[in-house]
Amino acid sequence: xxxxxxxxxxxxxxxxxxxxxxxxxxxxxxxxxxxxxxxxxxxxxxxxxxxxxxxxxxxxxxxxxxxxxxxxxxxxxxxxxxxxxxxxxxxxxxxxxxxxxxxxxxxxxxxxxxxxxxxxxxxxxxxxxxxxxxxxxxxxxxxxxxxxxxxxxxxxxxxxxxxxxxxxxxxxxxxxxxxxxxxxxxxxxxxxxxxxxxxxxxxxxxxxxxxxxxxxxxxxxxxxxxxxxxxxxxxxxxxxxxxxxxxxxxxxxxxxxxxxxxxxxxxxxxxxxxxxxxxxxxxxxxxxxxxxxxxxxxxxxxxxxxxxxxxxxxxxxxxxxxxxxxxxxxxxxxxxxxxxx
Amino acid sequence: xxxxxxxxxxxxxxxxxxxxxxxxxxxxxxxxxxxxxxxxxxxxxxxxxxxxxxxxxxxxxxxxxxxxxxxxxxxxxxxxxxxxxxxxxxxxxxxxxxxxxxxxxxxxxxxxxxxxxxxxxxxxxxxxxxxxxxxxxxxxxxxxxxxxxxxxxxxxxxxxxxxxxxxxxxxxxxxxxxxxxxxxxxxxxxxxxxxxxxxxxxxxxxxxxxxxxxxxxxxxxxxxxxxxxxxxxxxxxxxxxxxxxxxxxxxxxxxxxxxxxxxxxxxxxxxxxxxxxxxxxxxxxxxxxxxxxxxxxxxxxxxxxxxxxxx
Lengths: 341, 311
Hints:
- By secondary structure, chain A is of the alpha+beta class.
- Chain A contains ten helices and 18 strands.
- Chain A has a six-stranded mixed beta sheet, with helices on both faces.
- In chain A, helix 2 crosses helix 3 (108-121), helix 2 (93-103) runs parallel beside helix 4 and helix 3 (108-121) packs across helix 4.
- The longest helix of chain A is centred in the middle third of the chain and has 18 residues, at 167-184.
- The model of chain A has no long low-confidence stretch (mean pLDDT 90).
- The model of chain B has no long low-confidence stretch (mean pLDDT 90).
- Chain B has a two-stranded antiparallel sheet.
- Chains A and B meet through strand 6 and helix 2 of A and helix 10 and helix 11 of B.
């Protein structure tokens, strides 16, 4: 595998703020790579550094092995799908899509043909004559995608492209984006704060926090083997036992562990299992699952149970019940200090 | 639970409620004064002006009679009057282009790179010249541009006197000195109307999302291409708005043409002459119609070119 995008020790400072702080990443050719993190974690700045809209304060950026650190956006072989699409309001949809080809000096007829083909690719054939203002949010999103893809970039940067869409449309677009990426074989670098989105689409995910990369891993590994408390808490829900409680429950030296809510069961611990006693402090019904918060030894543990049959629900604990929680040792993941390695 | 503290009723509440229930009446009350002002004072006066431009002026008695005649408009097409119109329009066009060219970078900088106090400094800087008396500034410029003025002094110091004299020998542009040349008049007009160009352009540029400039660069456009294909088309309504100011101000001005530049009437000085010295109000009114027609044609053309599509 060749490396499509590489960041070597890249920092970007805005005054005293270290938006991106000594980040090193290698994104493989053809990979669906997500950068996940809360707002202000540096993921978008990182994308803008790759796109050339920001230049690094220090460190180098390589695109397909070439040093592109100081190149302006128009000299980089990458295209961006912007968060709010950034379509040109004075141009028709087809002229928007053909814009990149026009800048390359391709003739009117040829670029029109390619733009129409790109629009067909995102299921927008026949809408080329409209203006962006006449399209729905989902359609604008597709135009932005077509406008980037028509240039046949080797790397496509996507900055929270689905952020403005409603839930159903977002789920549908996730499937389409992933399918498109697989079909075209283009490297996707995808910025999102939605961990579900990152987990469901990506080949690998980089979790950002405070300008630094906490962990880079495939989705499953990220979920099952989070390396830091931040990753455990940000990707999915985690019960983190630390300090005194951890010592008491686990015995032995102080350490931090994470337990996923679905790995905990109600009832006395069986042979070889660990457990803790507490009181149900909150019950939420979520349809397929129910979510319980149990107060135990001054910490709140989250437990999720699948809702199977109506009869079984009657047996599930109610608010205020005294309960025991149990889990197997292999459900626990030991966490590092939070310092990225 | 105790009741939340309630607002005491005040006498004005009755009035507020009355209007709240009668939105339409409220709207009419709000709109009536400006509509009256606009309709009667502005449009009405304009119509009266056009109407009176068809009155007859008797050359012998020097009296205006209410006999309607197309003679004043026919007189506009006399070659001396056409000269006045074309001279004024050419100057207005040159001043407009100069103001747009000089103003755009300033407006762009203000819109994109200034915040808070620094932006305030720019606003004041752009508008400060407008606070001083216009006639005083025009007189000041006659001094600045005259032989022995600061421009000649600077040009002498940097050894470009030959070049300046060379430029002043050019037809149309030149004259015996800067203060009596069309070039000088052009400089003063450009100085005087520049703020009227910068402010609407700044407002228009500010409305162009910076993301669009980034998107353009992302799609391979070099800065000049981005300017030509994205920034300028989107900011063009502001350029047109500014150019209407610079254009119509030049077409109507009668001070600067009298103080700076070569002899020869402008539309503004002609109107001044006709109504002030001659007392031929109908002819003055006919001349006033010229800028209105020109601006109308200009706006129509701008619209046809798609200047307002982005609005």
